[in-house]
Amino acid sequence: MKATKIFMMAALALTFAACSNNDDNDFAQQPAEQPANGEITITATLDANDGASTRALSIDGSNIASTWKTTDEFAILYNNGTENTKSIATVDKIDGTTVTITFTIPASLASNTPCTIVYPASAAKADNTGADVATALATQDGTIGNCPEVRVGTATIDKDNHSLNSVTKLDAQNAIFKFTLQDLSAAAKSATEFKVSDGSGNVITTVTPTSASGELYVALPVMTVGTYWFNATIAAKPYIAKATIAVATVAGKYYQTTVKMATIGDVILSDGKFAVAGTADQLAKIAYLGNDAETSTTYNHGLALALADVSGTKTWCSQNNKTCLVTQYNTSTKFNDLAGIANTDALVRLSGHTHAAAIAARDYNNYGIHPTGTSAWFLPSAGQWNKMIGATGLGLNNLGLQKSAKYWSSTESLAGFAWNFYYYSSNDYWSDEGKSSDIRVRACLAF
């Protein structure tokens, strides 16, 4: 038989369902024969208060059952008087609802030395000071059987009685989520890669299923109040979703939620939400997805292009032969410029000569009103135009641009020239045009 801990379900807002774990455990003393090599064997029995005999991290109705196995290992972390070190405790026996573990310590260790218990042993920090939850959860395959479960407790090592004293409950350090993937039309989707990131774009975990899957079990640390991003590769196309967590999640709980994901060709609404094209109140079409969309670290998920040109054609600068930006780009380097936001900021604020194209882009939509969670409107750089033009599944014909028309970028070529592209049929041609030329402008958002 196996000793089992249960993650049980209850209700929580934001379409998540949560469950409380039920694993108040105690280590009971049990003597053991001692080795004769200057070490002492410590033996303790873990009592689990649920006697179900389910497999490790398996679904039992609406609960997740988490079970000790005879192959499990725990890390016992302590200071040996000189440095932080660890012993590996192995599961020797499972008898009903109890699990017996053993490990060895140096005979010279002081009695009642405090220790930290980390499960699994592989989750222990390299410096033996606790659990490295982030590393333990960094890569997953989306299956329940391989979903990480990190637990931490404390105790004191009773060398004289070969046991552990004052053992605390092994508290869960992460929650477990079941994500069901759909597109914005609620059609089921299966991903070959799925990432969860925080509001700053830091990847919390990457899930790589062994085969495409639309239901993924993912272990995540406590998610504090804030915005989180979800990126997936589905049928070789990029997808994205974001969620605002209004109440922090709780370690040791089980959550279920449907993740509705947008892709290139979907739109952003005035409130910043994603929707299918044609939805009322749409402002911009998603034209590129990727963390290299913009050099800004705040808006690094994608680009959305305004649904229409600004009114009339515009000059790039009111004076020719003036250097306007810090950096200029030649034919071979123009696509390296991904700083459309910074370019537009600089051009709008530059004194002495005006920049009609940048100002018109910034003032798009009633003098610049833009959705929450996006950048201000800006004139896309040459590199950003290039990414939007070449985006998977969209292409020039679906960007809503005027055919046989030129469009300004915010990338400067020389003192008197800036880069633009000529949209002709289904192709694009690039040229550096005199800054006094009248050319079309299409505003952009980064998110």
- How would a crystallographer describe the biggest sheet? 9 strands, antiparallel
The number of helical runs is 5
Principal-axis shape: elongated
Please tell me how large the radius of gyration is: 29 Å
What are the low-pLDDT stretches, counting only 5+ consecutive residues below 50? 1-32, 49-56
Instruction: Report the mean per-residue pLDDT as an integer.
Output: 88
**Percent strand:** 35-45%
Helix-strand category: mainly beta
Summarize the amount of helix as a percent range.
under 10%
Alpha-carbon distance between the two ends:
52 Å
By DSSP, the count of extended strands is 30
Description:
- The chain has 447 residues and is mostly beta strands.
- The chain is 8% helix and 40% strand.
- The chain contains five helices and 30 strands.
- The strands form six sheets. Strands 4, 5, 8, 9, 10, 11, 13, 14 and 15 form a nine-stranded antiparallel beta sheet that branches. It has an eight-stranded mixed beta sheet with strand order 12-18-17-20-21-22-16-19.
- The two termini are 52 Å apart.
What characteristics describe this protein?
mainly beta; nine-stranded antiparallel β-sheet; disordered N terminus; 447 residues; eight-stranded mixed β-sheet; elongated; 5 helices
Map the helices and strands.
Blueprint: E1 4-7, E2 10-11, E3 17-18, E4 27-29, E5 39-47, E6 58-60, E7 63-67, E8 73-79, E9 84-95, E10 98-106, E11 113-119, H1 133-137, E12 139-140, E13 151-158, E14 163-165, E15 171-172, E16 174-183, E17 193-197, E18 203-207, E19 215-221, E20 226-234, E21 237-245, E22 254-263, E23 267-269, E24 274-275, E25 282-289, E26 302-306, H2 340-349, H3 356-362, H4 364-368, H5 382-389, E27 405-414, E28 417-424, E29 427-434, E30 444-446
Parallel strand pairs: 12-18, 16-22
Antiparallel strand pairs: 1-7, 2-3, 4-5, 5-10, 6-7, 8-9, 8-11, 9-10, 11-13, 13-14, 13-15, 16-19, 17-18, 17-20, 20-21, 21-22, 23-24, 23-25, 25-26, 26-30, 27-28, 28-29
